[in-house]
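Re: the request from the purification team.
They wanted to know what the chain is likely to look like in 3D before they choose a buffer screen. I agreed to run a prediction and write the result into the notebook, where they can find it.
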Amino acid sequence: MSRRPAVAGQFYEGRGEALRSQIEGLFKSKMGPGSPPKQPGSEGRVVGAVVPHAGYVYSGAVAAWSYSAIYKDRRPGSFVILGPNHHGVGSGVSLFPEGTWETPLGAASIDDGLARAILKTSSIIDKDTEAHAYEHSIEVQIPFLQYLFGGIRFVPISMMLQDLETATEVGRDIAKAAKAEGADVVVIASTDFSHYVPPDVAHRNDDLAIQRILAMDAQGLFRVVEEESISMCGYGPVMAAIEACTAMGAKRGELLKYATSGDVMPMREVVGYASIAMVRG
């Protein structure tokens, strides 16, 4: 089973060498973390990360901060990537169970053993490929991982349901399955923050959400998103990642970078982006 890329040539460069050059440029850009790291570390502090998923020209430099932090920390055995379902197709929580995902940088392999363990553990996550066919929120993360790590193994989970109860269950099931498999997993939550609001509103509202993430407070994040009507598209994946990472030993979040689309080019209404690491200790 092989998934072809849905947004190559749109959200990011569609040819291999051009994509490598684009990603390198994002690291080195004024909003990026600097030159791409050369060697993976061996610390084991990073359990998860929050990463944006807009077109690379807007959010790629912010995303590079999370991937730099992961790579400098270690090479994990597998990644679980959670993203929102923007298209409204497929099941409420959809896991792509086996095979590969193609990008211009090659094939990324599904960790089918971990995928089976998650499906066995969970009563709410369904085996489903339909939700992933045209969804970009997970796809745009893969080239960053391939650029840094080469071959990777991962489990993609698309969330149409983003209520607190669902997210809590999904997160805890991921942690249980990883423990049962003895897997060294990094959990990635794909989300953008405020959508198409004035910059001051984006900064205010996004900071409210980010503070709850830094505190590893999934319930608080859900409450502030609801009460302040924050147009954050992937709060469910983030809540699930908080629950999974907490169960796997993460104690706090670290804000690596925040910016908006208005930092890339002037605009009256902006979209917010953040990279956040969830770490032990």
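For the purification team: Helices lie at 16-28, 56-73, 112-121, 142-149, 164-181, 199-214, 218-227, 235-247.
Please add any questions underneath this entry.
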